[in-house]
Amino acid sequence: MSDPSLFAVVYERHGVPVRRYVARRVGVADGDDLAAEVFARAFRARGKFRPEYSSALPWLMGVANNVIADHRRVERHRLATLEQLASDASQQVASRDADLTLETVRALRGLPASHRDALLLLVWGELSRDEVAAALGVPIGTVNSRIARARKRLASDLALTRRASSTDLRVVGDSNA
User: Quick one: CA torsion of 154, 113, 21, 134, rounded to 10 degrees?
Assistant: First the structure.
């Protein structure tokens, strides 16, 4: 991929999935700019690309994760904003993030960054586990472990939140209390 003219093919093939993944991680407003940064960095580093897979997508997603890591403060701010929006029961979160409840956002924020990255590459980035491993530059076993731990912690955190919410409702509705 050292020939610059071949890079146009890579962009045409993988531009949409990279933009979609980055936008879901950092928001639509910053997504296009950061996706452009992904391809700018990838173009500059095209000599380092190793065709281990039949697709350049895992490599590009790894570059995307590095760009996102550099932009982590904006992501934390966005998650805090989503948390604030989700806490207002009368206000709906933006359409693309409608499935993100306050509890889900809080649980995602509570995950270690490496676990959150692996899980979000799998779910939002729509990569296979092998591709997640390539994107993160870690063995498949590490990816499997991170995803399993992230899912277990999310399930636990969400179950605790639901139990606490149902207990709060019973106390409020209990006339004998």
Answer: -110
Q: How many residues are recorded in the chain? A: 177
- Written as tens digits, the pLDDT of the chain (177 aa) is 667 788 888 899 999 999 999 999 887 878 889 999 999 999 998 888 877 777 889 999 999 999 998 887 766 777 777 666 666 543 444 434 455 677 787 788 888 888 988 998 998 888 999 999 998 888 999 999 999 999 999 888 888 777 666 555 444 445 444
Question: What is the C-alpha to C-alpha distance for residues 142 and 163, in angstroms, rounded to an integer?
Answer: 31
How many beta carbons lie within 10 A of that of residue 24, not counting itself? 17
The three-point CA angle 42-46-50 to 5° equals: 110
Q: What is the pTM of this model?
A: 0.54
**Residue 28 CB-half CA count within 13 A:** 4
Give me the domain span that covers residue 123: 4-173
CATH of the domain at 69: 1.20.140.160
How many domains does the chain divide into?
Answer: 1
Residue type, 27: G
